[in-house]
Each structure stands twice: as C-alpha cells, then as structure tokens.
C-alpha cells in the first residue's frame, strides 16, 4: 500500500465515501430487500397463499402489483443510507484506533476488529431504526392501500400510534447491526490475512470484493434472526391488540416455538444474495472512493 493510501482520512471524507458506497449498493440490490421483507413477514401457521421462494415473490409482485413495487419504500433507506453506511465505515475507522490505544495494541487484531465492528453497528442502529420502520411499513403487502407514500406513512404512524411508535424494534435493530458489523468486519480482517496479498490494483479490487462478499454472508448468517424479529415488531399493527413481543429474545423464542427454528431464517436467501455481493460492492466502492480522495484532496 502506498503512503498516499496509508494516510488517515478526516471524518468528513470517511462519511462521504461511506455514503457513496452505501447508495451504490442499495440502488443495485434493493428489490432483494423487498423480497426479504415479504418472506420475513409470512407467519407459517397463518395459512393463506404464501410466497414459495424468492422467484415467486418477484413473479407475484410484478404480476399482481406492478414492477415499480419492487422499489416501494426506497426513499427512507436512500435518505438514511448515506449516514448509515458513512457511519458504518467512519465509526469502524474511528473505533479501531480507539481500541488499539485502550488495549495497548500496535496493530488491529481479529478480536479488536470484531469489537470495533460491534460498536460501529450499535452506533449505526441508533440512526437507522426509525427509517427502517417506515421502510418495512411501505414494503409490506398488507399496507399497500394504507399509505400513499413515505410522508403519508410517517404522518399516519404518528397520528395513529404516537411518537413512541417510531422507536419500535430499536432493541432488535441494535442486535441486527451489532451482529452484522461484528461478523462483517471481523471476518474481513481474518479473510484478508488468509488470502494471498494482491500485487496489482485489479488484484486488490478482487481481494476486497471476495473478502467483502464472504464477510457479508457471515454477517447475514449471524443477524437474520434479529432481522426477522425486528421486521415483525416494526410492522405490527397495534389495532390488533398488545404486541406479542417487543424484544429480540422474546420474539425469537415465540417464533421458534410456534413456527419452528427455521422460521428465524425466513428471507435468508434474498438477504444473503443482497448482502453477500452487496458487502463486496460496499468494500470495493469505499476503497475506490477513499483512494481517490487521498490522491486528490490530501
């Protein structure tokens, strides 16, 4: 790595690079997120016509609701994607040196990389929980006629459920992001150590994509259960009565008991298809943008 590439970036450059990486990923992969949400919201015991697979989700959405529905609810994540992904990388780059100093380590180790990722994930979750709730409400098929758009959704949630409703699922969101970031950044550290060192820029890009894709897959495997619980908590309609659960562990126990443990991995296929390659896209774009910034602005 060149001296230019080794220069530490100021926070505002890290923030901007993370934003570009995040928006690039979401524009490429968003329909998979819609499919993931539809599958996660299916309750196994409820009967009715269920989606059978990711392809069935896409086929039926296009046939029954129109192709544009695959991008329904994209505005909240687009609005939050810039700070979300920026915080992911900027916090990771900030917490790493902090933990090295705290534990008197000259270099980042894998345990410190995991701790750094978990802390960055918690920071990220505090920012994204409310936009996630709005996105879930817009993506759910049962809400197709309930909300006309993002601002209508926000207004109706506030009017019908109160300001506290926007914090629904926050605890499960923290679990989701802490596990994903810990798995993602921790595994990237180990994978890069195992893979042969890249000797060209193309080789470095390929290495980053492979490491990011594997890291995204590991993070997804770890965080799908809290994602299922979070999704159901955030879409719950209080008109049905008191929520059956409001936290991750309580929700995971109930879902496992009533629908089986496999239900905690509903939506895993579209989620891993998005966040595996998506993790690679994130890492590659972030690396390219930060390299450009170092060369041209520092």
UniProtKB/TrEMBL annotation:
One of its GO terms (cellular component) is mitochondrial inner membrane. Solcar repeats lie at residues 9-98, 108-194, 203-292. Gene3D superfamilies: Mitochondrial carrier domain (1.50.40.10). The keyword Membrane applies. The keyword Membrane applies. Pfam families: Mito_carr (PF00153). It is a multi-pass membrane protein. It is found in: Mitochondrion inner membrane. Keywords: Membrane, Mitochondrion, Mitochondrion inner membrane, Repeat, Transmembrane, Transmembrane helix, Transport. Belongs to the mitochondrial carrier (TC 2.A.29) family. This is Mitochondrial 2-oxodicarboxylate carrier. It comes from Coemansia brasiliensis.
